[in-house]
Design brief:
single chain, alpha+beta, eight-stranded mixed sheet, six-stranded mixed sheet, 12 helices, about 35% helix, globular, binds flavin-adenine dinucleotide, binds 3,4-dihydroxybenzoic acid
């Protein structure tokens, strides 16, 4: 088999790339290790920057998001028993965010891909990259009991942090930069109307908590825990108890409901440079990870593939490699801004297990500053709604 772009991974990055390329008349084949059912139900992100929502609308995959997504114009930061609103739209020159689950984005992308008759193979095993340095890179894989080979012009590595694309680049080519955090997030999806119209990021001596949502009927909530936390030690009652303590305020109650899903996520910062090698281009979590506090992972993944789609379109149109050659540098500027913002939000809001009082005083001072100084709040707002290249 032959195609123009071989895409490994049907997460948000790989699927969006396939759709964007199709809109530009470029063929691709998407290879995904998991089943359609699995990728459509993996609960992850929920905050979409306005520019990224516009990208989805421009690619004609945003109709349901426009109908069902909830536009937010602010978030709150809570600390020392007070809740303080950051008016995102007012401070960012009119920008907002859309609350719409990553699972829904993935479902919409898969439906469009299938409507486009674009090849999308699930439950593919043993994907291997070959001849990436040559002009005819290949992907070999197993699917439905047979061995297959896909000859491509280029390969897009959209297979997430644990994928095969990044490790297939020879040693010594990539530099990696990382930070592990001694925190995890225990997240739940609950069948109860959100108790706040906007997201609440809460600093608390017992640890961070976040109130978010997926719809007017579904709440999404997180509590800081250890990265290796045993989920079995957290029956639903304990989770609600902890959420009540950390998010609670006099005169306000957190409504509880049936827990539909729960899981623990570790937190890390990670970047590889460059994001390209020969005819292989890495995009999304395959190239970089951010801790979730800044809500940037999905947004960065979609930004990468929009840069890649434009670069490939220029190459196919007039043979120019200028944008392709600049792919890594273009993406990394935004990646590092998001890395800094996510690290900063994480450091400001999480409580170390053995809290150092000096660190705690710094956190509280920073929170007070960011909620009282318009200049500081504006900086948070413009990063949160999505900065262009800085
Ligand atoms: P992935 O979604 O990881 O997709 C990679 C795909 O490749 C997967 O489908 C995988 O099965 C497949 N794959 C892997 N290996 C192979 C292989 N060998 N062969 C074939 N296929 C393979 N981001 C935000 O922007 N906002 C948020 O609010 C937010 N909240 C989050 C909350 C949580 C709890 C978590 C865990 C993440 C959150 N993120 C958030 C991050 C966001 O979910 C990720 O950054 C995003 O999924 C990255 O998309 P991706 O397509 O690059 O990678
Ligand atoms: C959600 C996740 C985040 O990481 C975040 O910062 C805000 C909201 C969410 O899943 O809704």
């Amino acid at each position: 088999m032959r195609t123009q772009v071989g895409i490994v991974g049907a997460g948000p990055a790989g699927l969006t790339l396939a759709v964007l390329l199709r809109r530009r008349g470029i063929e691709s084949v998407v290879l995904e290790a998991r089943s359609r059912e699995y990728v459509e139900h993996r609960i992850r992100a929920g905050v979409i920057e306005q520019g990224i929502a516009d990208l989805l609308v421009g690619a004609a995959v945003g109709q349901r998001m426009q109908r069902e997504g909830i536009v937010h114009h602010g978030i709150s930061l809570q600390f020392e028993g007070g809740r303080h609103r950051i008016p995102l739209t007012e401070l960012s020159g009119g920008k907002s965010i859309v609350i719409y689950g990553q699972t829904e984005v993935v479902k919409d992308l898969i439906r469009v891909r299938i409507d486009d008759d674009g090849p999308l193979l699930f439950e593919v095993d043993d994907v291997q990259l070959r001849d990436v340095e040559s002009e005819r890179p290949r992907l070999t894989y197993r699917h439905e009991g047979g061995s297959h080979e896909l000859e491509c012009d280029v390969i897009a590595g959209c297979d997430g942090f644990h994928g095969v694309c990044r490790p297939s680049i020879p040693e010594g080519v990539l530099s990696s930069f990382s930070r592990e955090y001694p925190y995890g997030w225990l997240g739940i999806l609950a069948a109860v109307a959100p108790s706040s119209d906007e997201l609440v990021y809460a600093h608390h001596e017992r640890g961070f908590a976040l109130l978010s949502l997926r719809s007017h009927e579904l709440s999404r909530l997180y509590v800081q825990c250890r990265p290796d936390e045993d989920i079995d030690a957290w029956p639903d009652e304990r989770i609600w108890e902890e959420l009540q303590i950390r998010l609670g305020l006099p005169g306000w109650t957190l409504a509880e409901g049936p827990v539909l899903e729960k899981g623990v996520t570790g937190m890390r910062s990670f970047v590889v440079e460059p994001m390209q090698y020969g005819r292989l281009y890495l995009a999304g979590d395959a190239a970089h990870i951010v801790p979730p506090t800044g809500a940037k992972g999905l947004n960065l993944a979609l930004h990468d593939v929009s840069v890649l789609a434009d670069a490939l379109a220029e190459w196919y149109r007039d043979g120019s490699t200028a944008l392709l050659d600049a792919y890594s540098a273009t993406c990394l500027r935004r990646v590092w801004r998001a890395e800094h913002f996510s690290w900063w939000m994480t450091s400001m809001l999480h409580t170390p297990e053995h809290a150092d009082l000096f660190d705690l005083k710094l956190q509280l001072s920073q929170l007070r500053y960011v909620t009282t100084s318009e200049a500081a709040a504006r900086s948070l707002a413009e990063n949160y709604v999505g900065l262009g290249v800085v």
